[in-house]
Amino acid sequence: MIKRYLLTGLLLWVPLGITLWVLHFLVTTLDGVVNILPIKWRSESLFGMHIYGFGILITFIVLMTTGLIARNFFGAQLVKFWENLLGKVPVVGGVYKSVKQISDTVLSDSGQAFSKAVLVEFPHAGSHTVGFLTGHVSGELAGILGSESVSVYIPTTPNPTSGYMVLVARHKIKELDLTVDQALKYIISMGAVSAEISHSDKRNQ
To answer: How far apart are the first and last CA of the chain?
Structure first.
């Protein structure tokens, strides 16, 4: 009986504790952005006191302003010039291009990354797992594979931030009637919340 109470308490507090820790880490990190500003622009100088969250506000303003500038013609040309200049710097240019390609794929409105949950045979025939469709194979790889293929990201359990990328023939995957969030819940829980996915989550859609 005591063990059951302890487990129930853990099931309530562990998710809450991890959530609060992640939020605290994000807020603290973003709020720390204010430290790169000149002293005269910090909340202590402007308002005579430290304002918690002032760095988050500054970050939001900078991101919005940058996005607004980059969306117009002259801003886009400036960004293009800057990227070309940065790309010519040894080492730095290669790292920047790689990171930008990944961020463009994942964050772009038109990107296909994590657009669909799929069922795929992995790690061997007869064994299946849930993955995420990340794109269509093209170019030299498409010619080598011969048939229409797609790239699928297969996250590990219970940590979905690491995983495997596999190239699979299109006809060998099955698209699932699950949202990405539902599929992630299933993966992180190691399959323990499958009943909730098929009933409660669908009612909330």
So the answer is: 37
Q: Are residues 169 and 148 in contact, defined by beta-carbon separation less than 8 angstroms?
A: yes
Q: How many helices, marked H, and strands, marked E, lie in the chain?
A: 9, 5
Contact 118, 133 (CB under 8 A): yes
Alpha carbons within 13 A on the beta-carbon side of 96: 12
- The secondary structure of 65-88 as a DSSP string is HHHHHHHSHHHHHHHHHHHHHHHT
- In order of 83, 177, 198, the CA distances from 203 in angstroms are 46, 13, 9
Contacts for 137 with CB less than 8 Å, ≥ 6 apart: 145, 148, 149, 150, 151, 167
- Say which residues have a Cβ less than 8 Å from residue 184's Cβ, sequence separation at least 6: 155, 160
Q: What is the pLDDT along the chain (205 residues), one digit of tens a residue?
A: 777 778 778 777 877 888 888 788 877 887 777 777 777 777 777 787 777 777 778 888 888 888 888 778 787 788 788 888 877 888 777 777 777 766 665 555 555 567 788 999 988 888 888 889 888 888 888 888 888 888 898 888 877 778 888 898 888 889 888 888 888 888 888 777 764 444 444 444 4
